[in-house]
Design brief:
Helix content is 15%, strand content 29%. It has 2 helices and 7 strands. It holds the Pfam family Spore-coat_CotZ. It comes from Ornithinibacillus hominis. InterPro entries: Spore_coat_protein_Z/Y (IPR019593). Keywords: Capsid protein, Virion.
């Protein structure tokens, strides 16, 4: 049986049976206990907006993006200006970003977030688990991306990166 050919009692042929069964499971779970994730985009946004703790001082929802197609975590690169005009500082990388803006045509400006005590070598970070999240700070390094190139976003708990 291929996609769309599975039959479940009470589910019409036009409906996706896996989708319907998962909906039924969620409905049943919601009847038993509040179905709330401790960490999710919704929770991070609520924390940022102070809905869970007003006046908490949080200002950023850090995100990790996953490239469409291979579904691998996206690592951004950039550098600050060097010590003088026309010079480039040390190249840095990060899997974790602060969304600065999103345009109508789904392009976004992302700022690299890093722990200043984490080594800055670009080869050091092979995947998001290699990156320290203990003391993320804004870097001032921004990149522009096409959001149509991503298939997944992970929101980390809301934090404060500005003093």
């Amino acid at each position: 049986m291929g996609c769309g050919h599975g039959r479940v009692e009470g589910v019409s042929a036009k409906e996706n049976c896996v989708c319907e069964i998962l909906r039924d499971i969620v409905d049943a779970q919601n009847d038993v206990i509040e179905n709330c994730c401790d960490t999710s985009c919704e929770q991070s946004i609520n924390d940022l907006l102070g809905e869970t703790d007003p006046g908490n001082g949080l200002d950023t929802v850090p995100v990790i993006l996953y490239c469409a197609g291979d579904c691998k975590p996206f690592k951004g690169f950039g550098a600050r200006r060097g010590n003088g005009l026309g010079t480039i500082g040390k190249l840095q990388s990060s899997f974790i970003f602060r969304v600065k803006s999103v345009t109508d045509d789904c392009c976004a400006v992302l700022e690299l977030l890093r722990d200043p005590n984490d080594p800055c070598e670009c080869d050091h970070l092979k995947d998001p688990c290699d990156q320290s999240t203990h003391n993320l700070e804004n870097t001032g390094i921004c990149i522009t991306v096409d959001l149509d190139c991503f298939c997944h976003v992970t929101c980390l708990p809301a934090i404060s990166v500005f003093d």
